[in-house]
Design a protein that fits this description.
α3 runs antiparallel to α5 and α5 crosses α6. The chain has a domain of about 160 residues: OmpA-like domain (60s Ribosomal Protein L30, Chain: A), CATH 3.30.1330. A hairpin with a 2-residue loop joins β1 and β2. By secondary structure, it is an alpha+beta fold. About 40% of the residues lie in helices and about 10% in strands. The termini are far apart. It contains eight helices and five strands, in the order αααββααβαβαβα.
Amino acid sequence: MAKKPRVEKDNSERYLLTYGDLMNLLLIFFIILYSMSQVDSQKFEQLSGSFQSSFGAFAPGSIINTGGGGSSLMTLKPSDVASPTPNPTSQNGTGTAEEISEKAVRDKVEKLISEQSLQGNLKVELEERGVVISITASYLFKSGSAIIEPDSMAILDKIGNILLSVPGNHIRIEGHTDNDPIKTSIYPSNWELSSSRSTNVLRQLVDNSGIQPTVISSVGYGEYRPRVPNTTEANKALNRRVDIVIIKSIFDASEAGKGN
């Protein structure tokens, strides 16, 4: 029986398969690189606006179009960066709008202190957390009591009118005592006394001054957040107080109703 001749396969163009696969991979690779280099234009504008507000780094319209519907961070050039512009939230370089509002509240309270001769009973400070208006407990209440004295209600109403001038910020009423223990049928400890005092001040501001209940809260710290050591009677008098705190917006989200 005759042996069939062996057919030789032509492998001379087999490299084209590998070459084609390589070209496809390169194409995919460059498509991925291109897509990664694109930035959503809306997000880029928000980022640019944020930098402009904080540092005055970019002028409006300095976003560079790539021609593909997006904006690339890599296309920014020194010539595209404008000279610094004033912070839009500042006025005459005196601070942000919130800082200006805080100083205005401080000035109004200081004016109230001067007009009503409340030095030693009323104090206002600008702290990192916001504006803190402190009222000595002896001015508002009798010893061991949380009932607001009638003569003090008028001052609380005036303070309430000042608080109404800064709508939007959360207001926290904080009650504080000294470390002298108290144990009565109404107030088993300083916690109950300080909480009741802060709540009564809150109710006065809401019911008489028109502060919205959604932007105000109260807390009692008892003896555990003293302003000064309870080593003398004068120091204890300073620690017995009610603080009205206008909280800065950066801390506002942690307050009741804004953290959800």
